[in-house]
Specification:
The complex is a heterodimer. By secondary structure, chain A is an alpha/beta fold. Chain A has 15 helices and 18 strands. In chain A, a hairpin with a 7-residue loop joins β13 and β14. The longest helix of chain B has 18 residues. The chains are: A alpha/beta, B alpha/beta. Chains A and B meet through α13 of A and α3, β1, α4, β13 and α10 of B.
């Protein structure tokens, strides 16, 4: 087996470079260059030069290039797709079926229709990215939208594809980009850049991808100082550390740690729909083994429906156990497995001690659905561990989650019926930024206001030209 | 008081432990004898400990179906938080040791009822003597932990108090506690009577008699910091030892084991070959120790991850966290302890501690309560802090 090169540093490769090889299960090997500050500086200079060509490229050509790149990555025989299929499960720890599903859903997001929708959702006239256009709200004024001269990306490793999504956005605003990958997913952005290189070399020349351990100051400082805007994904520690080292003039877009949850109302608890709802809930939990910021940690289930909350929890437990065949959970390290075991043990013992707690499923220890009549919000240890809490009515949910408003994200819902507008209003005011069906919860659309933010507008600088 | 039906087993175990005081420790209980005793202990606990019996029945395990020690159901440590696991009346227990509050909140402190302390003490002494004490000596024991009377909840304070009184030379004493400025009932690791330490260490240096220092890693850290600030260094006599225990969980001044050991050598003159790390749990009556010092480092390297071993009446295995099946040596899993000295509660305890088996012991990798998410999902500790809840 030959190691896969997990970097894309156009214009700075040299024969005397040194490499480090990292081994994963199944004989998968990734090769990383040993980087020094000088290489990062040289790369930043290359990106700066490539930025001119990128800014001169019409938007429609960029959209077409991304679309063609996504189309090629959708071809199972394409060499970069083959590399992803072969290596991503071992590299990320997700099962092959999970990786395949994630790839298919995400590639759709980078096809032309999705990209055009994103542009229309964000910009009254996307042509502002190509030149001055009339401002429809102010006669006599023209506006121009410019991306950063250089965008820095600090990627997280929990969900493969999120890094590419971030690169797609900076490409659309014509910003050259340097992405630092996470140890957990250093490959997909590289395969994307390589495929883009076949399609439109000038665009791929404006992207650099490399991995180093987060916090390696000698490599990170040049990037943080050269970038006009830095987009960071990650846990609280990573985000806080980066924020403290950020130069004052650099703009920062943060996608930090989030908590998502679900709400199930009586309408979804009639005997037939309840099973289907339980399957949707289970799938939202199972996708990416609950590691996504959109993955529900817990579900509030309304009392008084045909199916009681504890029985609904049992249904979700059955559905989650059954999903392990179609969409197997990844192999997880002992530390994570110990956390799942701990959650199950604690629930079982609480039940034994007479607390209003029940543990499902009973025939598999690879996941857990814990019914707990106490509504105290506790985050999951993830890897398919869901808590189910009964609520007397949907209107109780907003108050339960409000204390955590700083970190709330997706509220998945089912069975709210005509109470949905009121529920949405209450959840919005409690801090939630996305309210969606369980089936859609794992797949935030490319044009959505992820984390309550504006996916393209937050990258832009506007220029007004008056009196023309 | 121990459930009366356990008296014969207790007496037999007391006798086994007493044999352990004559070297070698392992000879006190052969493997096959462990298995036979473990089954009898299980049968007793199944009868005398109703919540444990209920836990076992849920697994279809009864004395009729369990035929080997490995099949005895192990209770997770969380069980000590939720159930009264005791063979006898809880109110008549001679001691109740409590775990410290964790990220799961103070209401979730585990309680270990000890109906009869004689077995705890009988298990402790021979293993402590074998793993910690220099051969054939009754050295001065200096404890950086308050006396047990000040910390009635702490199994560690009880353990150290008992060895100071039972194994130490006449100058043995506690150097921590209210006398050193700690608030009554607190296990403030920083409250060490440094003047008393100077006196004791100075006397040991002058007289040439070895001392054994006992304490948590955090207490040692504070002591070393004070000594460094005072510019004081000692070369404690040959044969002196350190027994440290615990980590720096939740403490902002974390240092690595290697750094701590380097400081022991630099400031106290005790090289890392003479440092014994102890592994104990509130939920266990027996302890494990670094085996290297006892075995003259014939099988271990003091600078490498250290092998831990204990007396033969505790058997520690490594199991798969998902299936609970035993794992082959070298493979990381969670630790399962089968401690026959836990006669008055539950002998088989499953932990969330990670480790792997090696010939003659296990290597501990640390505790893992709640794994950290890989990216932008929320970490448990972070959220528990975000609403001011404990």
């Amino acid at each position: 087996v030959r190691p896969i090169d997990a970097w894309h540093l156009p214009g700075t490769d040299s024969d005397d470079a040194q490499w480090r090889i990292r081994e994963y299960s199944g004989g998968v090997q990734l090769r990383f260059p040993v980087l020094g500050a000088d290489r990062v500086h040289r790369q930043l200079a290359v990106l700066d030069a490539a930025g001119a060509a990128l800014r001169a490229t019409p938007l429609r050509r960029i959209v077409a290039a991304i679309d063609e790149t996504a189309r090629r990555l959708g071809d199972p025989d394409h060499p970069q797709r083959r590399a992803l299929d072969a290596a991503l499960p071992a590299v990320t720890g997700y099962s092959p079926a999970m990786v395949r599903l994630g790839l298919e859903r995400m590639l759709d997001d980078w096809r032309a229709p999705a990209l055009e929708r994103l542009l229309r959702a964000e910009l009254a006239d996307p042509a502002a990215l190509d030149g001055f256009v009339a401002d429809p709200t102010t006669p006599g004024r023209q506006v121009r939208a410019l991306g950063p001269r250089l965008a820095g990306h600090i990627f997280a490793g929990n969900v493969p594809g999120v890094a590419v999504q971030s690169l797609v956005r900076t490409l659309l605003v014509k910003a050259p980009a340097f992405g630092k990958t996470a140890a957990g997913e250093p490959l997909f952005p590289v395969c994307f850049a390589r495929t883009l290189e076949e399609v439109e070399p000038a665009l791929a020349a404006a992207i650099a991808i490399a991995h180093w351990p987060g916090g390696t100051l000698a490599l990170e400082e040049p990037l943080l100082h050269a970038a006009e805007l830095v987009i960071v994904y990650g846990g609280a520690d990573a985000v806080a550390a980066l924020r403290s080292r950020m130069p004052a003039h650099t703009r920062l877009v943060i996608h930090g740690p989030r908590l998502s949850f679900g709400v199930v109302g009586r309408d979804a608890l009639r005997p037939g729909p309840a099973r289907a709802t339980a399957r949707d809930v289970a799938r939202a939990v199972a996708v990416f083994d609950q590691q996504g910021c959109v993955s529900p940690h817990l579900v509030y289930v309304e009392e008084g429906g045909d199916v009681a909350p504890a029985d609904f929890a049992a249904m979700v437990g059955d559905a989650l156990a059954a999903l392990d065949a179609e969409l197997p959970r990844g192999e997880i390290p002992a530390r994570d497995a110990s956390a799942v075991r701990g959650a199950r043990d604690e629930a079982e013992l609480a039940e034994l001690a007479g607390h209003p707690v029940r543990l499902f499923p009973t025939d598999s220890a690879r996941c857990a659905v814990i019914f707990d009549a106490q509504p105290r919000l506790r985050p999951s240890c993830l890897n398919r561990v869901l808590r189910v809490h009964p609520v007397p009515g949907l209107e109780a949910v907003a108050d339960l989650v409000r204390p955590h408003r700083a970190v709330l994200q997706t509220a998945a819902h089912a069975g709210a019926g005509d109470r949905l507008p009121a529920l949405a209003e209450a959840l919005a005011s409690a801090g939630v930024t996305r309210i969606t069906a369980f089936a859609d919860a794992p797949w935030p659309p490319v044009h959505g206001h992820h984390d309550g933010q504006e996916p393209l507008r937050e990258l832009l600088r506007w220029v007004d030209l008056d009196d023309v | 008081m121990l459930h009366p039906a356990g008296a014969p087993l207790r007496d037999e175990l007391l006798e086994r432990c007493a044999r352990g005081r004559e070297a070698p420790l392992e000879a006190a209980l052969a493997d096959a004898d462990f298995d036979a005793l473990a089954l009898r202990v299980f049968a007793f606990q199944f009868e005398a400990n109703p919540p444990y019996a209920a836990y076992c029945r849920r697994r279809g395990a009864t004395p009729a179906t369990v035929t080997c020690a490995a099949a005895v159901p192990a209770v997770p440590t969380a069980a000590f938080q939720l159930l009264d696991l005791v063979c006898g009346e809880p109110a008549t227990a001679e001691a109740v040791f409590r775990t410290s509050g964790t990220t799961r909140g103070p209401e979730r402190r585990g309680r270990h009822f000890i109906p009869d302390l004689s077995l705890y003490e009988a298990s402790l002494l021979p293993a402590f003597a074998a793993f910690v004490l220099p051969a054939g000596a009754a050295p001065t024991l200096l404890a950086l932990v308050p006396p047990a009377a000040e910390l009635p909840d702490s199994s560690l304070a009880y353990m150290i108090d008992h060895v100071v009184r039972s194994c130490g030379g006449p100058a043995s004493r506690h150097l921590a506690g209210t006398g050193a400025g700690a608030a009554p009932g607190s296990d403030d690791d920083a409250a060490i009577d440094v003047a008393a330490f100077h006196a004791a260490a100075g006397a040991a240096e002058a007289g040439g008699d070895p001392v054994v220092l006992l304490g948590t890693a955090l207490a040692f850290f504070h002591l070393l910091e004070r000594l460094a600030r005072d510019g004081r260094r000692y070369r404690l006599p040959d044969g002196s030892r350190i027994m440290d225990t615990g980590g720096f969980k939740g403490h902002r001044r974390a240092v690595s084991e290697a750094e701590l050991r380097a400081a022991y050598e630099a400031v106290l003159g005790i090289s890392q070959e003479r440092v014994v790390n102890e592994y104990g749990m509130t939920e266990l009556c027996s302890q494990l120790y670094d085996a290297g010092p006892r075995d003259g480092w014939r099988e271990d390297d003091p600078a490498r991850p250290r092998r831990k071993a204990g007396p033969p009446w505790i058997r520690t295995s490594v199991v798969d966290p998902e299936t609970l099946a035993p794992l082959p040596p070298g493979q990381t899993g969670i630790l399962r302890h089968h401690d026959l000295a836990n006669l008055g509660s539950v002998a088989a305890v499953q932990t969330e501690d990670l480790g792997y088996a090696v010939p003659g012991g296990i290597v501990l990798l640390g505790r893992a309560p709640g794994a950290a998410p890989r990216g932008c999902s929320i970490a448990m500790d972070l959220l528990l802090g975000s609403d001011g809840a404990p």
